[in-house]
Structures are given as C-alpha cells and as structure tokens.
Fold these 4 entries.
Entry 1:
Amino acid sequence: MSPATRKRGTFRDRAIRFAALGDDTRLSLVHRLSRESPLSISSLTAGSDVTRQAITKHLRVLEDAGLVRASRAGRESLYSLDAKSVERARIDLDEISRQWDSALLRLKAHVEK
Amino acid sequence: MSPATRKRGTFRDRAIRFAALGDDTRLSLVHRLSRESPLSISSLTAGSDVTRQAITKHLRVLEDAGLVRASRAGRESLYSLDAKSVERARIDLDEISRQWDSALLRLKAHVEK
DNA sequence: CTAATATGCAACCATTCGGTTGCATATCTT
DNA sequence: AAGATATGCAACCGAATGGTTGCATATTAG
C-alpha cells in the first residue's frame, strides 16, 4: 500500500512515524535538516560517525515515514524535512495529552460528587 | 544509568521515547491508558491480539522510556500514563518545528535581499 | 483449604535493524 | 578523455525485537 492510498490514522501509520524518530542517528538527521535543508547524503554523512550507506538507509526510513523528501540534483540526492509530517506526529501526541486531561477531569468530578 | 541520573536532552534519550511510541501495539496501549488509568496487565491484554507476556514486555519498554508508571495493588500490576513524558516528546517535536520555521525565515530574508 | 486469577521468569524462535564492505554507475571537473 | 565525486545495489553479519510457550509463585474468592 502506498502512503497515499493507505488509510490515515491507524495506529500502525502513526507508529511508523514515531519509529522513524526512534533512533538517535535518525533523530539527529532530522534535527540537522530542520536547521538546514536541503542537504545531500554526503554532507549529511560528514559529521556523522557512521558510513554513508548507513545514512542512506536511515534517510530511506525517514522518507518512508514521510518525515523527509528527496529530490535529485545532478549527481546529488538532496533531502529536505517535511514539516507537515512532523506536525502530524505532534498532533498525535496532543491527542494523547487531551484525552489524559479529560480523563483527569472526569475523575475529579467523580471524586467530588 | 537510571532515568534520574541520566543526562537530559541527548539524542539517544529523546530517541528512546520515540522508539517506545514507535510500535502500534505500544501506541495503542498508550492511547488506552490516556483514556483510562490505571489499568492492570490483564485488562490491557483483553482487547489486544497478542499474549499477556507480549503486553508485559511492551509495558516494560514504555516504563523504561518513562512514558508509563507501574504500581502494585494486591496481585495486580497497575499501569498509568506519565503525562509529563508525553509532554517532553511533544516539546522535542516543537523544537524541530521551530528550527524549521526560523530556517525558512532566514531563507526568505536571504532571497529578498 | 482449594480453586481461580494475576503476574513473573526463562528459554526459545523468526524477523527486523543498524551497520559494514565491495562493486557498479552516473555526474562533474580539469 | 581521465580522475574525482556522489550515489546505488547487494550481500553479509551480529544484536535487538516482538512474539510465543511452559512453569513457578503470589493473591483473592468460595
């Protein structure tokens, strides 16, 4: 199933995003791309302690999660952050917080009754 | 290193939180706990399609990431969401978004100059 | 007391993951 | 054209993951 045809909002889809962020190398890539985009695979590899191939794989994971987009420019592959996808992850966390808050309110009301 | 003594804010620490959320079974546990806490392992297992042992392991992962806290009540282990930890994850995403926004502003300023 | 319930511990298994190395290919640069 | 640079592809490897089953133990209910 492609990202486009895949139904939105299942736990799996959301989990894939979080899983992509759930590795320190990838998280550091996301941070770099949030400060400067686009960046090539080589420049992303420079300043990392792993191989270019490892970085390539990580970028692929981020891309599959929709957190990052790639475009070819000559011999370089340039990666940019997809801010929308980061926002989607944030919204997921917001939902959890909201449900928690309202659960607390219900509990409080129940205790006071 | 215990969660308390571990230095805050490294990519690894943040990544561990996201990694804990990066599994659909665990994400669904977090969702349930955000609506109703505390819940026992048994009740969390009911309504899931995996074994109690699997759930136990997942809860342990969530607990190690600080997203959830356990307490014993008689023969039951009761798990609650730790809202602070969810908030911390949200803050991490906010930081990424903010850096992205300011990078965009810098780019815009540069182009207009 | 006895049976049922709730959990813990440990071993085991297949798959995924993060990483490497080696080689091929495409695109500049000179 | 030739060399340097940037990337892609594939095989391989050890460790971590997600899951199971079997058995032991503790607590509560009848």
Note: The helical segments of chain A are 11-21, 24-35, 41-45, 52-64, 83-112.
Entry 2:
Amino acid sequence: MRVIKESKERKNEILDIVEHLFNEKGYAKTTVDDILKESGIAKGTLYYHFKSKEDILSAMIERQIERRKQSIRQIAEDKTISAAEKLFQVITLLSKSGTLADGLHEKENSELHQKSFTRSLMRFAPIMTDIIEQGIKSGEFSTPYPRESVELLFCASQLHDPGVFVWTKEERRRKVEAFFWILELTLGMSDDAKAELYRLAGISKEVSENNG
Amino acid sequence: MRVIKESKERKNEILDIVEHLFNEKGYAKTTVDDILKESGIAKGTLYYHFKSKEDILSAMIERQIERRKQSIRQIAEDKTISAAEKLFQVITLLSKSGTLADGLHEKENSELHQKSFTRSLMRFAPIMTDIIEQGIKSGEFSTPYPRESVELLFCASQLHDPGVFVWTKEERRRKVEAFFWILELTLGMSDDAKAELYRLAGISKEVSENNG
DNA sequence: CCTTATAGACCGACGGTCGGTCTAATAAAT
DNA sequence: ATTTATTAGACCGACCGTCGGTCTATAAGG
C-alpha cells in the first residue's frame, strides 16, 4: 500500500491530478476529497505537501506558467525568424487552450481564471516586450509603448476566451479580424511585417476557428 | 421586532447592505450570517427573497450596472456635447471606483470582479459603440471596428484597476498615457478630437491620479 | 362586529458539506 | 537513530441552505 516518493515527485503527481480535475469540474466544485480519491493518497499526505487547497491551485498555475514561459522564451530567442513571426507564434501558443487552463467553459472558475490571467500577464509580458523591441530594432514595428501594447493585447485576448465570453461564429470572426487590425496599429507594423503576419495567419487559420 | 415590508423594498434594503459588505470585506469573506447581522433579519427571510448567496451577488451587480447604464445613456443622448467629450465623460465615469465595485483591493474577489466585468462589458459596450458611431458621422473618429474597439478599451481598463494589478506611480502614469494613445489610434481620432480629449484630460487630471 | 381564511413576509433551529487539523503508528532513507 | 514521507480517519468549525412553523394584514362570510 505504502509508496514513498520524493516530495517533488509526489507534488507533481498531485498537480497532474488536480490539473485534470480543475479543468474538468472547476476549482470550486472540486473537493479535497475528490483529489484524495483520484490520487489514492491520504488527507494527511496532501496536507503534508500543500498547506491549503488554494495553495494547490497556485502551485498548479505556477507550474503551467513556467512551462509556457519556457516555450515563449524559446521562441523569443530563436535567431532564425523575424519578430513578426515570433509574435505570431506566441499568440498561437497562448490562444491554444485559452490563455490559461484548458477547457473551463464553466463559470465559477473565476478564481482559477483570474489568478492565471494576472500571473500570466506579469510573467509573459516582459518576454513579449523583448520581442517587440527586437522588432523595433529591425524596423518591423514602431511604437512608443511596447510594454503597454503587449499588456493591452494580452487583455484583449480575454475577449476570445470562450470561458469568459460567448459569441456567435460571425462575431468571433469579426473579433479576430479586429484583433489583427489593432495589432498592426498599436505596434506600428511595417508593410512587410503586415504581409508576413497575414501570410502566417492565412496558413494556420485553424487558430481562430479552433478557439470556440 | 417583526417589521413587514414589501418584497421590492426589502430586497433593495438587503442589496444596500451587501453592497457595503462586499465592497468592504469581499464577496467570499462575507458570510450570510454577516448579512443577517447587519440587516437585522432572519435567515429564512433572506432566503425568502433570494435563492442563494450568489443570487444576491448577481442582483447587486445587476442593480449597480443598471444605475450606471442610465448615467451612460444620459451622456450618450446629450445633444450639446461632441462625441469625444461623451467618450471622455464615460471613461471618467467608469474609471471612478474601478470598472465595477468600489475599493476591492482584495484578491479573492474574483467572483465579484469577473461577473461584474463581463456583465458590464455586455451592457455598456452597445451604448459606447453608439457614441463612437456618432463620432464617425461627425468626423471625429474613424474606425472599421467601432464595437470591437470599445470592447478592447473596456478590457484594457482592467490594467488600471488597482484590485487586479498593482503598479508603481510611474508605471501607472505611463499606462494612462498609453491608454490615451491607443484610444486615438484605434478610434482614428481627428486632430480636433484629439485636442479636445487632451483639453478635457488636462482639466481633470485627478481622474488618473485618484485611481490608485 | 366578529370570526375565519388566505397570502405573504418572517423566524431561527437544524442539517449537510467541505476545508482543514490532529494523532498515532509505520516504513524508508540517511 | 533521527529525519522524512505516509497512512487512516475521527474530529472540528465555518458556512450555506432548508424546513416547519409564526405573525400580520386584509378580505370574506356569518
């Protein structure tokens, strides 16, 4: 019965399970006993590793963010592609599965959503700002407020999160269009950069369509 | 002890009290018993008028939104001022006391915040879009996406909500600057409109300074 | 004028859920 | 031998929500 694992390993195991549970039933509706049942550990064990249910949530979000941060950083440091393409890749990455946790169409997940949103912005914005500044140096972009533009775009992405707002197909199409339009405008994209963005967006149109 | 009132009246009385309590302690940390104690009614009475704690939250938010909607509509229908000034007045109105409820510097108010945010956007955006379209007709603004621009600006206002993000004074200054810059850009403001906006923003600079 | 009835507002003890604590025993690792 | 990880689950207390019953007002019937 008794299996001993390193704290790190056990923690990750628990986080795997709550990630699954929270995304399925939502944070509030997942009880601690659910987590226990699913992971087959005792209550004492859970509270040995985490100090509260919310602590588990924070840890899960932090882990998710850290993973994405690595992916984003990798894109940002890629020397073989333009800033415009980097930006596009990051947007694609983030729009996959909402900005945050997977498929929480549920309301009531405000805690998860809110926490994930603010933490993501704080952690991703600096890297994305780097990308914009690379683009400014290379002449692709031109804006007096790179950081603030990134933050704005980040906020705007909430509009496309089906867990927050529900739109019709047509509304969604318009909103995606508008998003790209605002992107060009606020970043002051050069004609070349625009062309590249549209080329990329054209190729993988699924991005905007999967997102509902 | 027993005082009998009409349902409407009692409901409003309760909503007055929860408005106060939720803004002071937050939704999650306010217990139903707190509401009872503060309003001097019994539990059964509360649940006679509302079906759940969350129902109370919804009702409170709905009432707040309805009030603001009246104010915004009034501004939108004012025939004596320009669209630029209308927009400015609406922004001022909304930024007063955050986008939503007053002074919830607390985290953990995600429920209140989230609900209020989405409901506000859905209810206010149409009226604000009207204002933009008036501005387009009068030549003050020019944009292919009036509705989407409004939504974007609305989302962006979260960045200035001290209950969501905490910035230094300098950061906040920059963000307000950036906000106005993006406003001009996305709405395609004419030089006249820009000038008017800056005149108005200059006069009541307190707006951006009170907001922290 | 005096009962009787009906409805709607009101009451508060109680039930059930859920997060979190505590204890006491135990096994593996160092 | 001490520390670290684990187990099992009884127990606690805070909370939300329910339920049976009560009070008041107004109206109808005698």
Note: Residues 1-7, 10, 41-45, 48-49 of chain A lie near DNA strand D (CB under 10 Å from a C1').
Entry 3:
Amino acid sequence: MNDSDTGERNFSIGELAGEFGITSRTLRLYEEEGLLDPQRDGTRRIYNERNRVRLRLILRGKRLGWSLSEIRESFDLYDSSHDESAQLESMLGKLEQRRETLITQRSDIDSALQDLERVETNARRALREVQAGNKRRRA
Amino acid sequence: MNDSDTGERNFSIGELAGEFGITSRTLRLYEEEGLLDPQRDGTRRIYNERNRVRLRLILRGKRLGWSLSEIRESFDLYDSSHDESAQLESMLGKLEQRRETLITQRSDIDSALQDLERVETNARRALREVQAGNKRRRA
DNA sequence: CCTTACGTTAACGTTAACGTCAATCTATTC
DNA sequence: GAATAGATTGACGTTAACGTTAACGTAAGG
C-alpha cells in the first residue's frame, strides 16, 4: 500500500481528471466553488475515495443540467445540521422542491423518448421503402 | 374569430412570453437561432399554434439541460428528409445516441430521487427527535 | 546537471444565453 | 393630437463554466 495506513488509494489531480474525462482545470474550479476539498501534500492536491464519490455526484448533477451552485446547494442540503427544527423544516421544503423538478424532468424524459420512438419507426419504414425502391430499380 | 379563416388563435410576442413565463427577448433569440419562425404582420411577429408547440418542445429541452443548438439539432433530426438511405441511417444512429443519453439521464434521476428520500427520512426523524426534546424541556 | 512530466497560482479569453437600453414605429385612447 | 402601451432592430453588458497561457516549483530519470 503506497499510502498511509488505511486500505485506501489516493489520486493525483491528473489521474482523477483522466479517469472521469475532465480536465485538471475543471477539478480546480470545482474546488474553488466549494464542491470538493482534497487534502494536500505540500501544495499538491491529493484526492481520496470520498472525494471521488463527491465528484461522481457532481457529474451526475451536470448530466441533469444543474448549475454548479445548484449542485453546491444540494450538498449543503445533505450536509446541513440536524439540530434546529426551523432548519429542518426549511430543509424539508427544499427537498420537496427538488423532488418536484426531478419528477417533471422524468416525465419530460419519458415524453421525449416517446417522440423519439415515433420518429424512429417512421425512419425505419422510410428506409425499407427506399431500399425496396432501389431493388426494383436495379432489377 | 379575430384572425384569418381557420379556427386558430394567434398571439403577439408579449402574450406568448407572458404565457410561458419567458421574455420577448428570449423569443427573439430563439428565432435568431432558428428554433422558431413566426409569421409577420408587417414587422410584427405573429405566433400560431404550431409555433406554440415548438416553443413547448424548446422549453422541455431546456428543462432537460439541452443547449439551444442541441435543441435545434433535434428539430433538424425530426424534420430531416426521408429520401436517401445514407441520411436515414445516420439519422437512426443519432436517434440511438439521444435515446442513450435520455436513458442514463433517467437513471440519474432515479438515483437522485433515492438519495433525496434517504435524506428526507433522516430529516423527518431528526425533526421528531428535536420536537420530543422540546416537549420534555417544557414539561 | 539537464530534461521531462506533472503540479501550482494567477490572470486573461471565450462561448452560450440571455438582460438591458436606446432609438424608433404603430395603434389605441382620452 | 398628445400620451400611453407594446412592438421593432441593434448594440452593448453580464454570468457561468470552463479553456488557455504564463511563470514557476518539484521529483524522477538518464
């Protein structure tokens, strides 16, 4: 084991970037925006498994079209303190909001998929017809 | 019926913007980007039902995080000619790609919803505990 | 010791998706 | 007919999310 004593692997910024198909610049930006905070070896960034999980969450958020600040808010939501009831209630409200947008997003996806299938069957039919026409012309 | 002879209603840019919660600027931009092309009454834009349907599709795309050019590409895909088999095959490929990203997006949504539920039940539990503590303290 | 690879910060550049504002036109209303 | 409401084009401003470059440090290898 190259690292301290836990059975955990560590990663340089370049390794992590390569693995996830992003650039180092992007990782530094995410850190600047408070989405990641890797440890340091002197000045060098060291990423551990926990950081990788976070990164995966960030990228999932991006695939859903969230902005970096929306992603940060979701982290804040998840990490927020559980001691004041006012806090907890506002949190539950925000969670409910998120759920709603996720659900309309899912129904948007479903209708987009339906549209897609319509277009696809049309295209397949058209393709068969074109090919049939070609056969006749060659005969 | 205020308009020509078809039973269709027409809309000014302001009406349409108001109805969909966007600004006129946005509608003009979408037109500039080739996503909409309303008729004109002199210089004024006139939107019909067909334009509204398009707009709805645009906004659905936005909710899914698509860029305007991705949205335009999807329109191009839907409207593209059905006469050359090469065209049709490349089209089927692109459709397949779209389907894949939609499906990973949907599974992203599902896992995000699961995370959300975990956090929510935790928050509810914490809220009950806090409230129980308050009761005891008041007693 | 020199090169090469990889890292650092800082700063400026770029693109998309609008917002904002100015100058002007048109139709309606008092 | 003067004012008001909404429309037009054109241009410049703004923000987010990076890309790119400069200037520099550091560890490994030949």
Note: The helical segments of chain B are 13-20, 24-32, 49-63, 68-79, 85-138.
Entry 4:
Amino acid sequence: MEKPAHDHLDALNTVRGGMPRDELLCDLADLFKIFGDTTRMKILFSLFEAELCVHEITALLGMTQSAISHQLKVLKDAHLIDNRREGKTMIYFLADDHVRSIIGQGFEHITEEEYPHEKDF
Amino acid sequence: MEKPAHDHLDALNTVRGGMPRDELLCDLADLFKIFGDTTRMKILFSLFEAELCVHEITALLGMTQSAISHQLKVLKDAHLIDNRREGKTMIYFLADDHVRSIIGQGFEHITEEEYPHEKDF
DNA sequence: CTTTCATATGATTCTATGTTCATATATTAT
DNA sequence: ATAATATATGAACATAGAATCATATGAAAG
C-alpha cells in the first residue's frame, strides 16, 4: 500500500492543534474589519501625521461631520485611537503604535508585491 | 493675538503631505477587508500549519463546501493563498509570509494589549 | 439662561457581502 | 461514453455596516 499523495487524516490532526479558539479568531477578524474601510483608513493616516480635531478630519476627507464622528467612535471603541477635550473641541490621536505596524504590513503586501502579470512574458 | 490652543491650518497642511493617493488607500482597505471575516481567518490559520485540500478545510471548519470554495476564491484573488491541482483534488497553501506578519501584528494588538479596565483601581 | 459653536448619537436607508441552493466544470475510473 | 468524485460558480437571499438626516449633548460666551 503506497503513501497517498495527500494524507488527509495527518493534515487534519496537524492543523487542529495550532488553531486558536473561536473567540480569539473572531476578535482578530473584528480588528481587521476596522481597517477594512477607506474612510477609517484615511482617518488613521491623517492621525499618523498630527493630532486632529473632528472639524479638521471632516475638512480633510471632505465628508459630513456625522459620518466622521461615527467612524471615530468605531476606531475609539477598538482602542485604535483616543481623544481628549480642549474646550469645545475634541482632539483625536493614535492610541498606540500597533496601528502603524499593522497598516505598514498591509502596505508592504500591496506595494512590494507587484505581482507579475500574465502578459509580462 | 495669541497662538490658539490648536492650530487648524498648520495641522491640515502637515497632514495633506503624508496622505497616500486615494487608490492606494482603497487597495489597503480592501486588503484588510479580506482579513475581516472569521471564516477566512480560520482558513488562513489552517493553512499556517499545512497545505490542505478543499474537503479538509470544509471538514475542519464544519461548513458547506460551497461556502469554503467561495472564500478560497476571495483569498486567492487577493493573492493571499494559491493552489495546485493533484489529480481530482485541489491543494491550497499560503502565497507568502506577508499573511503571517499581518495577522501576527493584529494578534499582538488584541492579546498584548489587555487594556486596563476602569474598575481596576 | 439663552445662544452659539463643536461634537455625538439614534433612526433610517442603501449598498456590500457571506451563505445557501442548484448546477456546472474537471479529473479519474469503469 | 457514463458514472463517480472533487471543486467551482451563478443567482437568490439575508444580514451587516456605512452614510445621511434630524436631533441631542456639552462647553463657553454674551
């Protein structure tokens, strides 16, 4: 009896071990979901450069104040950004440097990897 | 005339420079969107450990073959995974190590950062 | 305390997307 | 050629989520 080209049972057992529990996988997906929106991505890139108030972000992105506020809430709930009040205005800023690293990795994937096109040979 | 607490014009100008063009921001968001789903996250984690055929992934995740195939297509279109045929079966595997790095960064954010709860003092 | 300026939020709407169902394609065996 | 197995795919459906609109909250000025 020859070894099959692809051993199903073996592969399955190998994999079950390294799989994190469902809750963690869900949390991970939820985190990445936050980065999966152009508006939020723009907000984060803006905050890479400087602390900004809501009005400034609204102006920068050319969107309504409401839309921005809603997304700022999403980002804050995910602990990616934080804020402090200064009189009437609310200043937002990056919560930590994980944000930069995560986006940096994604950036590398889409730039560095300019896949060879089929017609290129 | 005193310097205001928060200089709007200055901040805006600082930011406009570092902002990548819209298309790139959109591509970035689209990439992260791929990671923002539990099913796809599970598939990727599975492929961390071993190359797998569709039937195996289907069994591992306890989902329908169709659902898995659809998601495999999404992952492949994003160049996160690739596949090769072995007879009747199709073997899927990770395309490169960007996947590991990106997920790794996300992992750090949600684990390492166990935010201090308000009631903790 | 009323007004104004800055931001937050609830409800609604509209679109995007994950799953299912049915069916198509591809490979191998009979 | 037909059947069986493995995977892919189009259409329909259901839900999630992003933007909008109207309105609420909060701080400061008059």
Note: Chain B touches chain A through 62 residues (CB under 8 Å).
